[in-house]
Amino acid sequence: MKTIIGVMGPGEKQSQEADLECAYEVGKIVAGTGAVLLCGGMTGTMESAAKGAQAVGGIVVGIGSTMDKRDLNEYVDIPIMTGMHAGRNFINIVSSDLLIFVSVGSPGTLSELAFAIQLEKPVVIIRGSKKLKDYIEAFKSPSIYFTTSVSELEKEVKKIIKIFTSGRR
Predict the structure, then answer these.
(1) Looking at the whole model, is its pTM more than 0.90?
(2) CB 19 within 8 A of CB 47
(3) Under a CB-based contact definition with an 8 Å cutoff, are residues 30 and 61 in contact?
């Protein structure tokens, strides 16, 4: 069974240019591990991560919030339409073996992070604010990691994949 790495982040309205650039690199890293990239399939960081994964031959699953596949970005290989709008966020988290959050700059991304913490999923956060880090660290979760660079994120993701998928195959 393939590892599924969820890449979560804000859509185009709440994304900053640095978020989009980072998400593209994250998509390449995810695909480089041989994992499937799962995202919300829409715009912003979701599209950038999907584009990065596609650039290096990765597979992208898009969990769409609407019922129309045409709403998804062009880099989604496998569309899964839910018609659930924000309710699809729970599906994103439950379906992912580990999650990478590129910024937490929108309410939707924040809800996904809350689900990930509640479900004790391994999480790596890049471009998270100090305020977010202070808040999250209060949970003392051993499976939440903050990184400050893409290269640091790549090392962390490979380490987590090894830890959390050993014995599953």
Answers:
(1) yes
(2) no
(3) no
Q: Give the type of residue at 7.
A: V
What pLDDT is attached to residue 140?
83
> Encoding tokens for residue 111?
């809800």
Give the integer Cα–Cα distance in Å for 136 and 113. 10
Please report the pLDDT score of residue 139 as a whole number.
82
Taking the C-alpha atoms of residue 53 and residue 85, their distance in angstroms, rounded to an integer, is 24
What pLDDT, on the 0 to 100 scale, is given for residue 161? Answer: 84
Mean pLDDT, residues 93-102 taken together: 97
Residue found by looking up tokens 């959390």 in the block? 164
| Token pair for 127 | 């471009």
Average pLDDT of the segment spanning 88-109:
95
Burial of 157 (0-12, 13-18, 19+ CB in 10 A): buried
Domains of the chain, each with CATH number or no CATH? 4-162 (3.40.50.450)
Number of neighbours of residue 169 by Cβ within 10 angstroms: 7
- Rounded to a whole number of angstroms, the distance between the first and last alpha carbons of the chain is 7
Q: Write out the DSSP string of 77-104.
A: SEEEE-S-GGGHHHHHHHH-SEEEEE--
Decide if 36 contacts 53 (C-beta within 8 A). no
* Helix 107-118 vs helix 88-95: crossing angle, to nearest 10: 40
